[in-house]
Amino acid sequence: MDLYLEKINKRYGKTPVLNDINLSLKDGELLTILGPSGSGKTTLLRIIAGLERPNKGKIVISGQIANNPDILIPPQRRDIGMIFQNLALWPHMTVYENISLGLRNRKKKINNNDINKIVFQVVERFGIKRYLDRYPTTLSMGERQRVALARALVLDPGLLLLDEPFSHLDWNLKDEFLDLIKSLNTTIIYVTHQVFDILRLNSKVALLIDGKLEAIGKPEELINTTSSKAKDFLRCLSLYKDRNFNS
Ligand code: ADP
Questions:
Q1: Mutate which of 14, 42, 212 to test ligand 1's pocket (most atoms within 8 Å of Cβ)?
Q2: Model-level pTM?
Q3: What digits encode the pLDDT tens for the residues 196-217?
Q4: φ, ψ (nearest 5 deg) of residue 46
């Protein structure tokens, strides 16, 4: 899915949170949004998903306007999957019920056999078939993570939005999941505040600071930014030091 954002602005009350965000993403592309806590990353994802409306700006999804002053396409018609940091699995539903919920709620009804087929394909791929009757609270964090991914991917979304979903995993597991993300054949926006993730994913990175896109490019290209805010932030992350760059 192609995505195009033009001059997206958002404020809460009088406080500006996003300031003239321009961004474009090609079908199948992986973009990482890097920025400190409070810089507006989640707000931007929520606006793309249609869960928030910008005060100004245009969003075009696969050539169709999803948001401008006159048009607002609701989240369920945007073909977008989102995984939040807390995963948001339903605790009272089994793994099977969690994963199949989106399919069961589809406007165009799918019969139970087809739902089973789709769910089984995805759970086999993620190695979670044996947990189908368990409840999320009985699973480890890594297992829950797989369930959350399966639940999003079972709907085959054109765009997958990942809001720091791996921040609670230990390094080995996180590494494994980042590889998994790289292997997915979907357009993805991955949000993080950690330099490890951008180096591991090695995708295009958009650096968001105080609601403004300060730089965009591959990790090694970010050092060419002239923005002093971006330089300060990257220095904090010791990106320069890790990669033997000179500030
Ligand atoms: P990040 O994901 O980068 O940590 P957020 O997008 O969550 O940043 O938040 C950006 C800013 O917007 C923060 O200052 C936050 O307090 C504020 N904010 C987010 N949601 C709301 C809301 N619903 N009402 C008021 N302020 C909000």
A1: 42
A2: 0.90
A3: 888 889 899 999 999 999 999 9
A4: -65, -35
